[in-house]
Design goal:
Length: about 170
Amino acid sequence: SGNALPGTAHQVSLTGAQAALPSVAVAPDGTVGVLYTTFDGFSADGFPFFSGHFAYSTDQGANFTDQVLLTFLSPSMDNADPRQRVLGDYQQLKTVNGTQAGATFYGTFTGNGAALGRSSASSDAIFFKVTLAPQISVNSPLAIGDVCLTATGQAQLEVADTGADELILSGITR
């Protein structure tokens, strides 16, 4: 059996947050990922607001960058039953060895599907993937419209980085 070595405490959730249900995973490159849920207050009619968060650290947990995955209204109010479980049991974070650069995390948490367009409010398993590497994205399909045979047309190509790391473009060629 090994001994646990206590280290310096580091804040993962946002300062002052009422956070719960943490799930931690460490990627092969050493990136630490933490999935957690926060209580964010009440709506005017008394329903609790929650947010699912993903925080990551690339420096052994000394500093964390936090991303809000989804903010949602609870599908039910407190019913005074101490066994009430609005957030359910769907809280997990994993990482896998991949061939792409950076760390990729997969997770699930309980959220209200109405926040994602579901027609009714209910507790659903919300699945997500976060890749901490540059991810190039372009507007596709590129819509130029009708162009006569001897004429030219043009459209704006929008390039974006949808990953967490900085995307560096060294040139664009037609």
